[in-house]
TrEMBL record:
Organism, as annotated: Microbacterium sediminicola
Domain of life: Bacteria
Name of one Pfam family that matches: DUF3159
Keywords of this entry: Membrane, Transmembrane, Transmembrane helix
Transmembrane segments: 62-79, 85-105, 112-129, 141-164, 185-209, 221-243
UniProt-recorded name of the protein: DUF3159 domain-containing protein
Amino acid sequence: MSSEPEDHSDDASAETTSASEVWSAALGGAARRAGLDPQQDVSAGRAVWGAIGGWRGILESVLPGLLFIVVYTVTIDPATQDGDLWLSLGISVGAAAIFTIARLIARQTVSAAVGGLIAALVAAGFALFTGEASNNFVPGLITNAAYGAAFLVSALIGWSLVGLAAGYLMGDGTAWRRDRRKRRVYFWLAIAWAMLFGLRLLVQLPLYFAGAVTALGTLKLAMGIPLFAPLVAVTWLVVRALYPREPQ
């Protein structure tokens, strides 16, 4: 007596859809909390300004790293060509801690500040454990590699992270995958984000291996918000263009 093999294709498809919906909700929720909801009736500039947290967000993002670079460069010993690592890291982490405490006192959202403090502490730990100032930038390099790979892989397998987030925010779910135009646009947006993170690695890794701490820190800041903000604006505008509003 023979039996027909069970067809699990529907189950696999359902599991894939379920997983994509979870990722879509997670990514879309994160984008919304960051102030990036394309359905909001605001300009791209205002949306990007909100996403980076305004002047306060810029300070929280830039100042700790800037202080590290300045203090380390100023304290470089001509004999050893090394700066005061402990002082540089102490001031950098201290600045991040002050931002976090200030938000706690003001009872404001602390996620960005806490994230910055944790990042500063982890980076300081890398540097202090190895005694190499350049290792202060290792977590950032790892983050860029991880994000770049995630965006690239998502584009190549047809599940663009940008598409998943936008689909959730725009009420499109994963239906965009059946729309050739949307799928193509989300593919290239994911590639653009992958290229951003890849460019950072391409420029910064040689400096890291060369131990060029000042140059590496300076370029990290220059390739941070100045590159991030324009790409956020482009992504925002393109997503809104894909979902034109009906005239009132």
